[in-house]
Amino acid sequence: NAGVTQTPKFQVLKTGQSMTLQCAQDMNHNSMYWYRQDPGMGLRLIYYSASEGTTDKGEVPNGYNVSRLNKREFSLRLESAAPSQTSVYFCASSVERVGIYNEQFFGPGTRLTVL
Amino acid sequence: GQQVMQIPQYQHVQEGEDFTTYCNSSTTLSNIQWYKQRPGGHPVFLIQLVKSGEVKKQKRLTFQFGEAKKNSSLHITATQTTDVGTYFCAGVNTGGFKTIFGAGTRLFVKA
């Protein structure tokens, strides 16, 4: 069991470039999440997918899009990167979003720098 | 909107000293979770509290959920250097539709 995997681990972009962060989980979880983590600000939810086929905005969705490709995979796309999107991005998954079985399992993160 | 406040932001302790971090929600929570993130790592789930007044222990770690289900604490007895990292609480609002993370408390332990 690999758990939650993310690619790439590191990425440097120039302002205006686009890229997609990939996330996959092998735990048969229904719900998946994308967070960004900035110093002193904890984890902020960008988008989530409660179940396959659904996606919803979190706290900070502007500048991002997501795709729940299947039950395993949930990707995050930056269409036109900005320096304010420099951050560490974590993908997470949980058995369910509603109820008590919603402990989240996190991937190793992607460290993104936008110049 | 719902907020989860966590204090302190940082704590420096000497190895062997105790440590406590506190989490307060502006609304009643359905349940609360605690995570630990080692430096350079990712958050790892520690525990979940569901019942009002619940207390759970994991070795030197004691977790409490307040009677009103609006606050929680994590206490570490006799800290060790392996305890270094950031501890996050995550409150799940009543109805379970949203999980909000606190900003975290970063623990430094001096040997």
How does this structure look, described?
The complex is a heterodimer of chains A (115) and B (111). Chain A has 115 residues and is mainly β. Chain A contains no helices and eleven strands. The model of chain A has no long low-confidence stretch (mean pLDDT 93). Chain B has no helices and eleven strands. The N and C termini of chain B lie far apart (41 Å). In chain B, the strands form two sheets. In chain B, strands 2, 4, 5, 9, 10 and 11 form a six-stranded mixed β-sheet that branches. A five-stranded antiparallel β-sheet of chain B has the order 1-3-8-7-6, with no helix packed on it. In chain B, β6 (55-58) and β7 (61-65) form a beta hairpin. With 111 residues, chain B is mostly beta strands. Chain B is globular, with a radius of gyration of 13 Å. Chain A binds chain B through residues 35, 40-45, 90, 92, 97-100, 102-109, and chain B through 6, 9, 30-31, 33, 35, 41-45, 48, 50, 88, 90, 92, 95-97, 99, 101-104.
Descriptors:
heterodimer; A: mainly beta; seven-stranded mixed sheet; four-stranded antiparallel sheet; 11 strands; 49% strand; globular; B: mainly beta; six-stranded mixed sheet; five-stranded antiparallel sheet
Average pLDDT number of chain B: 93
How many helical stretches of chain B?
A: 0
- Helix-strand makeup class of chain A: mainly beta
Q: In whole angstroms, how far apart are the ends of chain A?
A: 36 Å
Mean pLDDT of chain A: 93
Radius of gyration of chain A: 13 Å
Tally of alpha and pi helices of chain A? 0
* Assembly status: heterodimer
Instruction: Encode the helix/strand succession of chain B as letters.
Output: EEEEEEEEEEE
Shape of chain A: globular
Which stretches of chain A are poorly predicted, pLDDT < 50 over at least 5 residues? none
Global structural class of chain B: mainly beta
Question: Which percent band covers the strand fraction of chain B?
Answer: over 45%
Q: Using only CA atoms, what is the Rg of chain B?
A: 13 Å
Measured as a percent range, the helix fraction of chain B is under 10%
Dominant shape of chain B:
globular
**Straight-line N-to-C gap of chain B:** 41 Å
Would you report the number of β strands of chain A?
A: 11
Characterize the main sheet of chain A.
7 strands, mixed
